[in-house]
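TL;DR need structure tokens for one chain.
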Amino acid sequence: MADVAPIKFYGRSKRNAVVPIDTRRPEWLRVRLPGGSNYSELKEIMRGLDLHTVCEEARCPNIGECWQARTATFMILGDTCTRACGFCAVKTGRPGVLDLGEPIRVAEAVERMGLHHAVITSVNRDELEDGGSAIFAGTIRQIRKRIPKCNIEVLIPDFMGDEAALATVMRARPDILNHNIETVPSLYPQVRPKGRYPRSLELLQRAKRMDATVYTKSGIMLGLGEEIDDVIQVFRDLRAHDVEILTVGQYLRPTPNHLPIARYVTPDEFAMLKVDALKLGFRHVESGPLVRSSYHAASQVPDRAAAG
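>> reply
TL;DR here they are.
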């Protein structure tokens, strides 16, 4: 018999439910298999330019929807991470040689895809002196050179708290600086063993202080065993550190070797969390079971010209 866990509903009291964990997903988490002409074209572009996407490497459930809508999140600095976070499907190991031509190929892909909003993320490269920040900056500049009106969002690692590495990225002037907080502080040893909650908060606030015109953004996963009160406190902490855009989604276990799912959070709970987050002053909140960092990213910020 499948393991089950009682659901504690957030907000108004509701009758408790029981949902099978890590077996059959609830109806609200079922997605169509990826396909379609745009999906096939984007996959061909990525392979032809020898590029990686977090959509594929992290096994994102929205890949079909996003690629068919001609949006994708590029993953730079290779496909091998120096960390082993308990939730992440990206492979861990010793990364290869740094690819200095990657920024040009990413910009070419953005141009060929006709993107108005490009999202750039990466693996952690803790073995590099600058954490890979120069490649982030180079990618931003190459996209600006080819497609000046394209909004650029970067989802960066914590660079081990290196302020100079963050400054390198900020000098290239992305439109959105995203760094995911991922979970509540008490779960960091299991979820982000090499991460530090205060360090991530400090990085986000430093980014805003370096350039107040750049929007700051963060995201959190639910269903790992966190308490709702702790989630609300994370929202408060993010706002206290000048974060303006928030994403809240359900953790989905990528393989049996990753952290188990403690529970499936209902769509109603996600909706109520969005209301609470907006009351705290976030500019934009995406909250739902299938929400990921770059889900509907293009709708989260006005273009550079409109932003003034």
